[in-house]
Amino acid sequence: MTVVLLILSVITGVFLGKHFGKKEKLAKNLLVLSAGFLITICLNEVFPQVYTSEVGSSLGIFVIAGVLLQMILEALTKGFEHGHFHHHSENNILPMALMVGLFIHAFIEGIPLANEKEQLSPYLLGIVFHNLPISFILGAFLFNRKNESKNSHYPSILIVALFALASPMGMLLGNYFNPNLQPYFLAIVGGIFLHISSVIIFESNKNHNIDWVKIGLVILGVSLALIMHLFHHHPPAGHSH
After folding, report:
1. Main site of residence (predicted)?
2. Domain carrying residue 163
């Protein structure tokens, strides 16, 4: 079930991006909606698990490591994760670099899934919700390029397949780690989530005007995550997976 959801979220996003990819405003709106959802999952689900674990007080450095790791990965992806996608400069992004950056990003996110006890955990849904707009942009970029001859060695379908399989592969590797390491991996992913979602939400608006649509989408994303939080069973404080 987990693997199916992860793969379907990527395939669905790529499919939508291929057919509606020219609607850049739609991609931006999906990103903002997912950012509101993701930052709420991060603060209400991921960080409480991290800081109520037995080693919680020493995990702040791993959160910072996640933030720094995502900043490094963005040197490869050129900010795909938070919508820095412009048709006029798309040839500046090498498919190999994009493939490596997105794979590492999704692979690391998949590792903590190995110790998630629920099939539809908030953490999993956060990844799925996050995958959709990224995959939308990926599909728009890969399948609507005007000039693909220079990049023929790296077929688009390979990039999509690797991105779709990255989180399941991370989850598979996570089965071989000691479950006591779960808070460390969650802390790193929490830093990644925090960086991506905050950049999307707090990026300066044009002329610094209030963007009511953006605010509304963030509130909607937050509300969806809070509703899910209310109906989700939470272990007692101090319990670690």
Report:
1. membrane
2. 1-84+91-144+154-208+220-232
Question: Which distant-in-sequence residues (6+ apart) come within 8 Å of 189 by Cβ?
Answer: 46, 66, 108, 109, 111, 112
Measured between alpha carbons, how far is 91 from 74 in angstroms, rounded to an integer? 16
Rounded to 5 degrees, what angle do the CA atoms 231, 236, 241 make?
95
User: Are 115 and 50 contacting, i.e. CB atoms less than 8 angstroms apart?
Assistant: no
Residue pLDDT, tens place only, 121-132 = 888 988 998 899
Residue 238 lies in a domain: no
- Give me the number of domains the chain comprises: 1
Nearest alpha carbon to residue 14 among 102, 124, 79, 88:
102
Q: What is the pTM of this model?
A: 0.84
Q: What is the CA radius of gyration of the chain?
A: 17
For residue 161, is it within any domain? Answer: yes
In 3D, which of 194, 216, 205 has the Cα closest to residue 41? 194
